[in-house]
């Protein structure tokens, strides 16, 4: 849980400071912050923190987890969504200042929805796949975040997910003949 809080604070700073949503003496935004920028900024920071926390390796895990792509993608999309349209050098270079205000600014709420939806999808997928791999000797312990999403207390077992077998293309010829027969 500490990891999720730390990652959320990192997301808040990484998106809030360069976009000017969080006022600092480092950066002055050229257009005012819109009312919807604040909830989008907070929602993406919380979701990004939770997604990042699902990639932290537990001591009993042997395989390393790398969540940089999922977490970074949601954070970048959120930064483009809540950022100042005329402060973004890429947008201004591509569309010009008038294009940034007339074309890019109306697209920013769509980017905000896509950012939140992508982070929600990633978080749901990460937590649902908590038991997707077979483990000799039973299930590994659930993470506190997965327990909170399931709503099951840690001492009460939850129902295992049914894992679909690999397709025939994933099997070797000897495995295919064993499966048939």
Report what the structure shows:
This protein has one domain. The chain contains 6 helices and no strands. It has helices at residues 2-19, 37-54, 68-82, 89-128, 144-150, 173-180. Helix 2 runs antiparallel to helix 3 (68-82) and helix 2 packs across helix 4. The chain starts with a helix and ends with a helix. Keywords: Membrane, Transmembrane, Transmembrane helix.
Keywords:
about 60% helix; 6 helices; mainly alpha; single chain; about 180 residues
Sequence-ordered SSE layout with sheet pairings:
Elements: H1 2-19, H2 37-54, H3 68-82, H4 89-128, H5 144-150, H6 173-180
Helix pairs in contact: 1-2, 1-3, 2-3, 2-4, 3-4
Helicity, in percent?
A: 55-70%
Count of alpha and pi helical runs: 6
- Chain-averaged pLDDT: 76
Domain module count: 1
Transmembrane segments: 33-56, 68-91, 103-123
Region (Disordered): 142-181
Keywords: Membrane, Transmembrane, Transmembrane helix
Protein name: Integral membrane protein
In short:
The chain crosses the membrane at residues 33-56, 68-91, 103-123. With 181 residues, this protein is an all-alpha fold. The chain has helices at residues 2-19, 37-54, 68-82, 89-128, 144-150, 173-180.
